[in-house]
Design brief:
single chain; about 550 residues; Urease, subunit C, domain 1; 6-stranded mixed β-sheet; 24 strands; about 30% helix; binds zinc ion
Amino acid sequence: MSAPATLFVNGRIFQSGVKPGTNAGLSHPPTFAECMLVRGTEIQHVGHASDEEVTTARAAGPDAVTVRDLEGKTILPGFVDGHMHLMLLGQALNKLDLSRCKTLDDIQTLIREYAAANPDAPRILCRSYMHSMVPGGAKASDLDGLDPQDRPILIDSKDLHTTWCNTAGIKDLQAESWADVPGGIIERDADGKLLGIFSEAANITYVWPYLASVATMQERTAAIKAAVAAYHEAGYTGMIDMAMDEGAWDALQALLAAEGSIPMRIAAYWLVKPLKTEAETVAQVDRAIELAARYNASTTPDCRVVGIKVICDGIIDACTAGLTEPYSHNEHLEVPLWTYEQLEPVVKRATQGGLQIALHAIGDATVTMVVDTLSKYADPERRPRVEHLELSSERDAVRLGENRITASIQPVHADPAILGAWPKLIGEHRCKRAFAYREFADNGAPLALGSDAPTAPHSPFGNAYVATTRRSFREPDVETTVNPHFALGVCESFAAGTEGAAYSCFDDHRIGVLKKGCKADFVIVDMAWEKERLKDAKMEETWYDGARVWSFSE
Ligand SMILES: [Zn+2]
């Protein structure tokens, strides 16, 4: 007897018509098939109501084939988030959300209420403060006294580049004993006293591992499950983790051992941090090579280590992105976190080990440095990639295409509602170069769309909305656009968020497209195929491996 089958009829089954590794272009229209037959874990047929496969399936009767009338709704491939942070997202889902606060007063009020409502939590963990909420600069004393038990209070900035904590938090972290790290910021007052603000490499080197080490295995596996559930609801069936470490990897293995499988295609890039010596830094690449030899597309295709990730600069809002010209408001010239000399041995070793390489570069100076390094030392066949690409030159856009470097972009970061400070920080003239997606695509760089969750909303429709309209998804009434001439097309955006992201990590032969022989990972959506209406798309169901894993009605 064959596996149970479902025949979807009367639908709009998305077909991008795009060749793997290429982009659709601004106005390329997709086509839509009417029917899709799913049997077991695979797509068995996509086509027309009159196709023989469809008529045969219908004739088999309801015991053999369930027929579903889609009533004109759309089926898209399950989305693959090209850049996200699984453990941080899962943990963030369980933290106090400060993103709606406007002032320090709002922050203090929320924390006071939360502390009172959660008397048993060992720490008060919060997320999503923005530097603009505390214009005078955040410090530990702002948080002291909010909790009668004086527990550690630790707050992630919305961009995840900074942690702000109270005095009890500084003690909990034992931050007094920390040495400065290259590219890290440990803020102190004039007397050298810690202010409770840890940014960039200091945050990554000290705070993240500490919080990961105090999280119990049960908390970590619960975080993964929460993130996977949230992603099913949003329409994802695949994710590319962009800062995998031992703690999160152990938790994934523990969860797999306990449950047999995790209903998500997970590809991980191992985070390589700048350590004291070159040998220590490169040893992290060796660890990734070792893991990739064990967990790869042939052995564990749904949970594998595919490469390394290096965070080569910070972000514009914190004035830590590496720029070719000084910041406009203070004439400070910020350089990338890594030098050419530091980056070269890491990229070389990863290339020797057959790993993929993902380099985070936000400012234009950093983009130039990473494109230089990748074009010199990375193997273009291994689909190297640059993450974010927020400010870039025309010349580097051309070089991305020439060197077949994936442009891994997060349109939700281009939301005009969060870019208010940019004209002051980098000047209007440089704002005109922001988020130049059109140039990347037209020059032939393969596109992969991602959300960078939990730093930004992870709705794939929000992502497509911003990419195509260049308007705000967070505040849809705001009519401001950000460089609309750099917009992507609708088909182009959906292709980049599905097959493009799958292509970026060599998974395009089995996911990201709706065709015969591919995995039955897809979503059913009530939507209109118009860019202005993408934000109103209504997710109805998510299917993974031929089974429904989320439904709006349940
Ligand atoms: Zn990220």
